[in-house]
Write a structure and sequence with these properties.
Two copies of one chain form a homodimer. By secondary structure, chain A is α/β, with parallel strands linked by helices. Chain A has helices at 38-44, 64-70, 88-102, 120-136, 178-187, 201-211, 213-225, 231-241, 247-252, 275-279, 338-347, and strands at residues 3-8, 55-60, 79-82, 107-112, 116-117, 140-145, 156-163, 166-173, 190-200, 258-263, 267-268, 288-290, 293-296, 299-304, 309-313, 316-322, 326-331. Helices cover 32% and strands 27% of the residues of chain A.
Chain lengths: 354, 354
């Protein structure tokens, strides 16, 4: 059975503002010193598993040119341009319906476009195992990450019995508070929900039909129109009519026959500016600097310079991001509050800075 | 007797980098919201005491145009352009010699160009008293500032007996360490040396002759050439030959008949970026911001914005200064280390940023 990959690349990456903008979100940025963008890395590391013509990118129509530009090996028709944002369930249904047109059935990897993987060989082997499990039956397989600390920003997967290469999933749980996250961690029975899924197209379509029949029907009509002159019209009509729903809430929390494979491949969701010091090398004082930077007595400072000299003196636990039109200086305790600045700018109608 | 004023405006203001540059030092910047530059304020507050044609500005030749531009009421010949920096003794000798050419004798106020005064009426009255004391005899009068905390960055004046409107000076002392500064403060017998002096030209010339005869002779030759075609040649020859010396070390610490008048007029030497929050209004969280700035949960943060948006999130006790080609982010504990950055830039030959 053919293996296909669906890269979800419609996100806004607000937490990486001001580098990530409406016009160029996080997945199209490089946050590592090698200059490769997140989405380029995502596709590259799949190459041992998937033919390039079987890689699909679902993104907002506004980013189609960015995808074409950064991933010029991918067939243009594989770039699935959403007319609006409707969260992951419609996104995945759209891709599944399109792949159904090409192959009777196929294995489908569903992957975020803006995460990093430290150990790519292990990652590929883990996905191979997941492909095997998905192909055995009507299974939905999710990759769970073994937690290393009680993170409160992720959803968790509670797993049960071992079953072949995987574990049965008992339930998905939302982001916990800190005491609950600590319990999860010490129980040894919870994994982080990484948002990476593996299944047969036929499996996910069956579950869509059962749990989200409206979206299933719409996706079918989009799939039927794919490759015909009326495609864009149908897509806009059907997709804009979809409600916004996550695949986790829409299917994973309801379906049976769900398995998880624990992944230990140096996963990083690059979820905020704090990630930069994790995914890059720092100096002896734990500073990370890029660009034209002078530091004097600075420690644990992350500096992403722009076109100008940045001089940081005596700084501690702070993130400095310099761009042409915006400068961000953010305490490491407040990286989530970047969204508040964006909200304020939207409120003030300053969309050119968002 | 005529009252003249000599404004010393040759400093580099390194501690206000990156706003203060070789090409435009601190005294030519506005650090207050009214937009007036430091030197403009210095001259303006003297107007109740001195005619504008009796105001002299001693500055580096490189800044002559800046002075002309910012102080366009001052006669051009009153701008005394030093060909090189030689500290305050040669600067004052130069001005005294020039004033000697115009008036047989005159009272001479010697004032820094880059300090701020909160209570200008009290300041003017204090200087009036000082003028009176200076005219009584061969007196050198210095304005001492009543200390409010044990500052280790200033020289101190140890005073003794009251004598009319002033106090006899027992000695000048260099910048103390903290325990010594605390002793000075608790003794009630020490004032901060503000670098403001009042004397008759004849008095300071007599002391120059006694304690710095080489500089006295050179200054006399400069004074004789003033207003003649050979002036610039003489000035360059004599001035470059001067050794670098402060008036404190060269005269004040050696001469007798020295008096101090305690000043309580809201003096601020604007000695580092820390001054900005002192001399301007701050918000409820003790932030000072100027320019296009958004703060979220920031406290005690000083932000001097430039042309771009500055977003500060969760910052504490930090100073952010944005200019076209340099961004400074500096802990309030490290404001003196700005000089280290300048030293590094000089070392690297990056003079355009200094």
């Amino acid at each position: 059975m053919k293996t296909t990959a669906v890269i979800m690349a419609g996100g806004r990456g607000e937490r990486f503002w001001p580098k990530s903008r409406n016009s160029c979100p996080k997945q199209f940025l490089s946050l590592t010193s090698d200059g490769e963008t997140m989405i380029q890395k995502t596709v590259k590391r799949l190459m041992p598993l998937v033919d390039i013509e079987d890689v699909y990118v679902v993104t907002n129509a506004a980013y189609k040119d960015l995808v074409l530009d950064q991933l010029n090996d991918i067939p243009e028709e594989n770039i699935l341009a959403e007319p609006c944002a409707r969260n992951t369930a419609p996104c995945i249904a759209f891709a599944a319906a399109v792949i159904s047109r090409k192959y009777d059935d196929a294995t489908m990897l569903v992957l975020p476009s803006d995460h990093l993987i430290g150990y790519e060989d292990i990652y590929v082997n883990t996905l191979k195992k997941a492909i095997g499990v998905a192909q055995e039956g009507k299974n939905l397989v999710t990759i769970g990450i073994t937690p290393t600390y009680p993170e409160t920003g992720y959803g968790y997967i509670n797993f049960g019995q071992e079953s072949g290469a995987a574990y049965e999933v008992k339930r998905f749980v939302e982001k916990p508070d800190l005491p609950t996250a600590k319990e999860y961690l010490s129980s040894g029975k919870y994994l982080w929900n990484s948002g990476m899924f593996v299944w047969k197209v036929s499996s996910v379509m069956a579950d869509l039909r059962e749990f989200m029949p409206d979206i299933y029907e719409g996706a079918l009509r989009i799939g039927e129109a794919f490759g015909t002159p009326g495609f864009t019209e149908t897509l806009v009509k059907e997709f804009t009519a979809f409600r916004s729903e996550s695949i986790d809430f829409g299917i994973m929390e309801k379906a049976s026959d769900i398995f998880t494979i624990p992944g230990s491949f140096g996963w990083d969701d690059v979820g905020s500016w704090l990630a930069v010091e994790r995914i890059n090398e720092t100096d002896d004082d734990k500073n990370y600097t890029e660009g034209d930077v002078i530091t004097v007595d600075s420690k644990r400072t992350t500096i992403c310079g722009g076109k100008r000299l940045v001089a940081a003196i005596g700084t501690r636990d702070i993130i400095i991001v310099d761009t042409d039109d915006v400068l961000l200086v953010c305490s490491k305790n407040n990286t989530q509050d970047v969204k508040k600045v964006i909200a304020k700018l939207k409120e003030e109608g300053r969309s050119e800075l968002v």
